[in-house]
């Protein structure tokens, strides 16, 4: 599909919105000088369009943007890429503020190297979004691994569940891609659409934001006669961004894509609800003798361990455990770590699940409820053994956090800046890409009717679309985390019943798969 055709497909789902109101909220704060994290790094920006364009009837200035995206990680780049790919928004002057040197990458990453520890499991819904904006074809030229099967089981040996893409008539359940490949693919697509994207990215940090106040109005003859220049009054309607290299920018809309510790969110005064889990996750790449084509997850007393295929004979390990254990596993010898991984995925902590009379009666009881899923008759399998750890082992603390608001006047939060969830199902980045697609669509809808896309009445439509779905997913993942963090006899039996239900009740299994794939917004039957 050609870029214009993709854009038309995106826009065909658009709605019309009422014109935006003129009220503004007072807000001026400065950032601390703490160094940003890899995800939270903030940096410079420049116009991506010819400076002779006009804004609100005035000649566009070099320091003015339509949309300033703070954070050039996967989700921030996805917002920019979606906007540049739609006919209604590709003319907008979009800037990406991020100092990460990885944004200078413009070439395909080699497939024959060791996979990076940082990967994402992208759903079919995310893949469809990437295809619509033209970025997926670049992923295909770099390392990625589709998987069509998944096995989930409990350390007690009381039950397991097998999932297959065939259960829902699909070719795959998801695809494991290195984060750097996703970012690189989005950058390559931006370059296709915009030519020299250096004009969109300045390597410098954001120092402060100043939002318009209610008292600032559009230029009037009375205001000009009172001593204000028309330029000052024009800028008073925009967000002021001060950068560490001394530049000052003005933008109609700021998109906060600067991670879970978002400075943009903090500056806007948006509060969050959440808590830290008494867990950390350790991630790394391991090697096998043969290729792995299945996603594996076992729930242990300390937290789940996942083994995800990443292509060739490599897999990615995501292992949740106590902070103390994560430090111990990070520092142990490679040989001991491999033994620990294999133990956790095999007989460690408990026996393998095995079929019994309960399974026979469950299968007979539910065989007449809907069409039987293909994976219902599949037996438990032992994951492939790891023979070596081939990457750096990284550990990070886990938490749940959700912003009370996703938007305010001339501001929208996306991705981890708006919400963070437990990684046990690999859904965090998929929620972020869903935010990117929804926000770009709302902006396009506003442009289509000549509305102010920085107005909160329009941006609220993005928040309403995404907040309920994100909260639902966060609640599901938090529930799983809590249920599987307790080793208690009666609860173990209930967990086993849940595994059996998911294995043998085909309508339930198909609904779980569809929800995890992003085909449905809600975890219940829909």
What does this entry show, briefly?
This is Ubiquinone biosynthesis monooxygenase COQ6, mitochondrial. With 526 residues, the chain is α+β, with helices and mostly antiparallel strands.
Helix and strand layout, with pairings?
Blueprint (H helix, E strand, L loop, with lengths): L2 H9 L15 E4 L13 E2 L8 E2 L2 E2 L4 E7 L3 H12 L8 E4 L21 E4 L1 H9 L3 H4 L5 E3 L1 E6 L5 E5 L9 E5 H16 L6 E2 L3 E6 L9 H5 L4 H6 L3 E5 L4 E9 L6 H5 L4 E16 L6 E7 L2 E9 L2 E8 L1 H9 L2 H11 L12 H10 L21 E2 L4 E10 L3 E2 L2 E3 L5 E2 L7 H21 L7 H28 L5 H16 L1 H12 L9
Parallel strand pairs: 5-6, 5-15, 6-12, 9-17, 15-23
Antiparallel strand pairs: 1-13, 2-12, 3-4, 7-11, 8-11, 9-10, 13-14, 14-15, 16-19, 16-20, 16-21, 17-18, 18-19, 21-24, 22-23
Helix pairs in contact: 2-5, 2-12, 12-13, 14-15
């Amino acid at each position: 599909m050609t870029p214009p055709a993709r854009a038309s497909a995106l826009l065909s789902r658009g709605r019309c919105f009422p014109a935006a109101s003129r009220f503004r909220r007072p807000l001026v704060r400065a950032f601390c000088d703490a160094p940003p994290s890899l995800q939270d790094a903030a940096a410079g920006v420049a116009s991506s369009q010819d400076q002779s364009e006009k804004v609100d009837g005035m000649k566009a200035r070099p320091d003015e943007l339509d949309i300033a995206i703070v954070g050039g990680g996967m989700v921030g780049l996805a917002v920019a890429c979606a906007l540049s790919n739609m006919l209604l928004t590709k003319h907008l002057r979009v800037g990406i503020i991020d100092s990460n040197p990885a944004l200078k990458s413009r070439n395909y990453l080699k497939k024959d190297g060791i996979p990076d520890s940082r990967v994402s499991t992208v759903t079919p819904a995310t893949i469809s979004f990437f295809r619509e904006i033209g970025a997926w074809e670049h992923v295909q030229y770099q390392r990625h691994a589709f998987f069509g099967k998944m096995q989930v089981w409990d350390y007690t040996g009381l039950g397991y569940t097998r999932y297959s893409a065939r259960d829902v008539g699909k070719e795959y359940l998801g695809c494991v891609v290195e984060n750097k490949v996703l970012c690189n693919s989005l950058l390559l697509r931006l370059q296709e659409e915009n030519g020299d994207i250096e004009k969109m990215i300045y390597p410098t940090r954001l120092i402060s934001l100043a939002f318009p106040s209610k008292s600032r109005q559009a230029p009037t003859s009375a205001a000009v006669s009172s001593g204000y220049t028309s330029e000052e009054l024009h800028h008073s309607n925009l967000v002021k961004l001060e950068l560490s290299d001394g530049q000052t920018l003005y933008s109609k809309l700021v998109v906060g894509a600067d991670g879970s510790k978002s400075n943009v969110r903090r500056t806007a005064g948006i509060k969050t609800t959440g808590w830290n889990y008494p867990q950390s996750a350790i991630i790394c790449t391991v090697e096998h003798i043969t290729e792995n084509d299945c996603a594996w997850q076992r729930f242990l007393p300390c937290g789940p361990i996942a083994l995800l295929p990443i292509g060739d004979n490599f897999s990615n390990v995501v292992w949740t455990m106590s902070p103390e254990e994560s430090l111990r596993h990070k520092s142990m010898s490679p040989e001991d770590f491999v033994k620990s991984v294999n133990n956790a995925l095999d007989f460690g902590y408990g026996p393998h699940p095995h079929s019994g009379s309960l399974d026979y009666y469950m299968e007979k009881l539910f065989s007449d409820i809907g069409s039987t899923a293909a994976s219902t008759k599949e037996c438990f399998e032992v994951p492939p053994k790891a023979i070596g750890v081939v990457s750096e082992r990284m550990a990070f603390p886990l938490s749940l956090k959700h912003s009370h608001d996703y938007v305010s006047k001339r501001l929208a939060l996306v991705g981890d800046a708006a919400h963070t969830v437990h990684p046990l199902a690999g859904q965090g980045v998929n929620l972020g890409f869903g935010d990117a697609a929804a926000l770009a669509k709302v902006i396009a809808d506003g442009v289509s009717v000549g509305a102010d896309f920085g107005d909160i009445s329009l941006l609220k439509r993005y928040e309403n679309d995404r907040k309920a779905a994100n909260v639902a997913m966060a609640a599901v993942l938090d529930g799983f985390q809590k249920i599987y963090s307790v080793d208690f006899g009666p609860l173990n039996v209930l967990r086993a019943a849940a595994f059996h239900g998911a294995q043998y009740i085909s309508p339930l299994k198909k609904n779980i798969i569809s929800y995890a794939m992003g085909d449905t917004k809600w975890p219940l039957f829909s």
